[in-house]
Amino acid sequence: MGDALLQTPESEKERLLNYFAHKITDILDWLAALSPDEEGGVTRLLYTEEWLTTQRSLALRMQSCGLETEFDAVGNLFGRLRGKDEGLPAVLTGSHIDTVVQGGKFDGAYGIAAGLVAMEYLRKTYGTPMRTLELVSLCEEEGSRFPMAYWGSGSIAGKRSFEQIVHLKDAQDVAFADAMHRCGFGEGKYRASGREDIGAFIEAHIEQGAVLEAEGLQVGVVETIAGQRRLKFEVGGEANHAGTTPMHMRKDALEGASAMIMALRQEALRRGAPLVATVGRLQVQPNVPNVVPGKVVFTVDARHADERELELFCLWVAETFERLAAARQLELTGSEWFREAPVPMDDRLKSGLDAVCKELGVSSRRIISGAGHDAQMFAAVAPTAMLFVPSRGGISHSPDEYTAPHELAVGVLVLTELLHRLAYAEEKLEEGTDEHV
Amino acid sequence: MGDALLQTPESEKERLLNYFAHKITDILDWLAALSPDEEGGVTRLLYTEEWLTTQRSLALRMQSCGLETEFDAVGNLFGRLRGKDEGLPAVLTGSHIDTVVQGGKFDGAYGIAAGLVAMEYLRKTYGTPMRTLELVSLCEEEGSRFPMAYWGSGSIAGKRSFEQIVHLKDAQDVAFADAMHRCGFGEGKYRASGREDIGAFIEAHIEQGAVLEAEGLQVGVVETIAGQRRLKFEVGGEANHAGTTPMHMRKDALEGASAMIMALRQEALRRGAPLVATVGRLQVQPNVPNVVPGKVVFTVDARHADERELELFCLWVAETFERLAAARQLELTGSEWFREAPVPMDDRLKSGLDAVCKELGVSSRRIISGAGHDAQMFAAVAPTAMLFVPSRGGISHSPDEYTAPHELAVGVLVLTELLHRLAYAEEKLEEGTDEHV
Question: Which residues does A350 contact at the CB level (< 8 Å), separation at least 6?
Fold first, then answer.
């Protein structure tokens, strides 16, 4: 098993980090410049011209780094470093190439760029790995153009299929299938997306939160991707004249909703991390300054790493909101419109990441991912892990998204070492112990 | 002085009420049918075709009731019963003919219909009055088409002028002046609107609140038209990812606004009637389910019959909101965008209405008008009073607006008696005592 990175003296580690910082900054700037938007951010939506240009340019860049490239039917791009034993399951790393509208240049792109830097370094330094190493630029994760998220990773994991996109259209009424076909992808094109030969998937990503920054840590080893429930509540009161309706005769839907919003936050704080609960969207009817609100509709987004804790919290929400509404003689209806179970990351890979960080002198902690990621799709078909680097101010999905070059490089260093241990080791991944990574 | 109504036996009063109920229902149904909308309500906006048809039809109906009619420059319509002594200031009654979009058939129209029934009855029963009696169908009060309210009464009272409407346009970009000219009105047309010869103005109106209904009373004698302040607050927090931002690291503008909304209601309840305070409009940014709200903008509408109490309450609002924002590290900016001082009604006319109700066996109370009315314009140039009849469920500005025929008739009875005392009396209004009404 190779452990050359660990054997480098401290000054050599610094030299390597500077090199990685230079390389990854170069790739991220280049990727961003391929799909700039007018607001100074990056907008690269699935199956657009900018998206296609980026994937094609990335294929050329992978080739120049010594990787064999291949697309699959949905447009996922793979860069392969063929292993000595092609019968062994492959080690994959990567993330998604698409962005939200007016996104930043790190979300998704970082995982691809980090993988490219790591694989180029490993190939140049150690040559052919034991197992095949693959970098994947997943076609889509955000669900920003069509109402469909995790299209790339879900297609690989068998959780997405062409039947699911038949009726989908974007905001300009373009059919999903038409957009896909225009880019040259679709059923029967290239290789089918489903994979059953993946030995491990490692995704590097920006945290999108401010926990690492606040604690001054370099890397987050994702414990679990939080489960989500999204609920919708309608509070019904009586729209009435703001001047002629005495306070005690009102049924003010907005005042009722306000009591619910405050109770939600207080209880989420009381129950503590990793629970988070948010009222992000709220609409008032009729929403006129001189009319007592007759109806308020709002959403609750609740997340937790533990399914049972999430379930208990949502029960508390329903009961409490019902009680607050009844006390005010308000009507209340609630419904759940989205649910995703928590996805724990692979224990052996997490321990492996912990060990790498410790041995490399990289400060780290286990962390819950409150956001969804491609890794949650891969976890269904392969041992999967994620590592986070800090997000300045916790900002993401914005042109203001930022991680310093040195912080990006530390993530690359950790990823490189883990990939080295996974792909260049003689042992079988499937039968190893924690020590094998 | 005539007091024939009072001398009628109880059975005769019932006969009269039935007669009034029949007459006023007929007029209100007829008026509503002139401007029906598709939703079963009434939509009659200033200077529209429906509006012009209604004013012209009403002029013909006034004439058929024995009144001389006349328009003024802005389109106010007057129906006159010329008095024996034309040198004496006139007694006016009436209200506005325009409605909100999808309004009901009582708001405004009731005051005109009640005046028409009363004046026809007085003419037929008592002949020519001592003073000139006038019914006015005011062209506009609601501000529903153009951003200008009280156009009709304000023009009479000298509080509105053609300079003020020069740049006004409606939602379809039609200029106020063009719409007015197309209906045949405008500067130099008909008689100039300003009046200085008004001895009294009495406006009958639906309550638009549920106080009379809740207390089982027939008439409200308006004490004061409440003063209003309208404020706008902007709460600034930090828009953040709903999944990755721990609860204790959030600056949630919506949670802050919720605390303000709850505090506002609690304090308004504590201070008690006639104070009312309402958050009617609220907007969240970015208003997305999975983003912590970064900004919330909302309005506060506060009303009170006492200017100083209103001022003190608004100071409390500003201080309390500031404190609630600071405790949450939220930014807060506030501004006042509308202010109207309370307008007390004329003491002698109020006492006159009290007396009429008492003598006619009509149950009544003094009441604060939380809504604005044309009467507040007239109060600047003449002794002015208002009487309210009950609104079922307090509903107004809606097709569901309703007052039962018998309730409408009681208002007509009180109005008729007051107009009789004011216009047929020998004494001068200007020098009389409470007894003269």
Answer: A221, A222, A223, A366, A385
Each residue of A354-393: pLDDT tens digit? 999 999 999 999 999 999 999 999 999 999 999 999 999 9
Instruction: Give the separation between CA B267 and CA B275, rounded to whole angstroms.
Output: 10
Task: Give the CATH class of B228-340.
Answer: alpha beta
**Residues in A touching B288 (Cβ below 8 Å):** 280-281
The span from the CA of A281 to the CA of A300, in Å, is 8
**Cα A377 vs. chain centroid, distance in angstroms?**
11
CB contact under 8 A, A280 and B249: no
Contact A244 B371 (CB under 8 A): yes
Tokens 């291949």 correspond to what residue? A70
Q: How close is the nearest chain A Cα to the Cα of B65, in Å?
A: 34
Taking CB atoms and an 8 Å limit, are A280 and B301 in contact across chains?
Answer: no
Residue B368 contacts by C-beta under 8 Å, 6 or more apart in sequence? Answer: B222, B223, B224, B225, B226, B273, B274, B305
- Smallest Cα–Cα separation from B47: which of B157, B189, B158, B163? B189
- The answer to whether the beta carbons of residues B84 and B129 sit under 8 Å apart is yes
User: Which residues of chain A does B299 touch, with a Cβ-Cβ cutoff of 8 Å?
Assistant: 289
The pTM of the full predicted model, rounded to 2 decimals, is: 0.87
For residue B196, count CB atoms less than 10 angstroms from its CB and return exposed for 0-12, middle for 13-18, buried for 19 or more: exposed
Q: What is the pLDDT of residue A6?
A: 56
- Output the CATH code of domain B4-225+342-436: 3.40.630.10
Q: Answer yes or no: do A257 and B257 touch at CB < 8 A.
A: no
- CATH no. of A227-340: 3.30.70.360
Name the closest residue on chain A to residue B293, using Cα atoms: A280
CA pair distance B424, B129, nearest whole angstrom = 5
Interface test with A, best of B101, B230, B233, B244 (most A CBs within 10 A): B244
| B262 vs A contacts (CB less than 8 Å) | 255, 258-259, 262
Residues from chain A that touch B208, judged by Cβ atoms under 8 A, are 241, 243-244
Q: Is A89 left (phi over 0), alpha (psi -120 to 50) or beta?
A: beta
The closest CB to that of A247, out of B244, B265, B284, belongs to B265
Query: Token pair of A256, please?
Result: 């009722």
Cβ-based neighbours of A410, under 8 Å, separated by 6 or more:
A17, A218, A219, A362, A389
Neighbours of A286 (CB within 10 A): 13
Looking at this predicted complex, what is its ipTM?
Answer: 0.87
Crossing angle between the packed helical segments B405-423 and B109-126, to the nearest 10 degrees: 50
Taking every pair of Cα atoms in chain B, the longest distance, rounded to a whole number of angstroms, is: 83
- Please identify which residue in the block is written with the tokens 């007051």: B418
Please give the residue of chain B at the shortest CA–CA distance from A393.
B240
Q: Where are the domains of chain B?
A: 4-225+342-436, 228-340
Contacts of A369 in chain B (CB under 8 A): 243-244
Instruction: Look at residues B181, B213, B233, B220 and name the one whose alpha carbon lies nearest to residue B47.
Output: B181
Contact at CB, A210 and B245, closer than 8 angstroms: yes
Is the pLDDT confidence value at B191 over 70?
yes
Mean pLDDT within B63-75: 98
Q: Closest Cα of chain A to B152: distance in Å?
A: 22
Which residue of chain B comes nearest to A253, CA vs CA? B280
The answer to whether residues B163 and B393 touch, using CB atoms and an 8 Å cutoff, is no
Q: At what angle do helices B10-34 and B109-126 cross, to 10 degrees?
A: 130
- Residue range A40-75, pLDDT digits in tens: 899 999 999 999 999 999 999 999 999 999 999 999
pLDDT tens digits for B327-356? 999 999 999 999 999 999 999 999 999 999
Nearest in space to A298 (alpha carbons), one of A334, A269, A350 = A334
How far is CA B162 from each of CA B53, B182, B193, rounded to the nearest angstrom?
A: 23, 16, 11
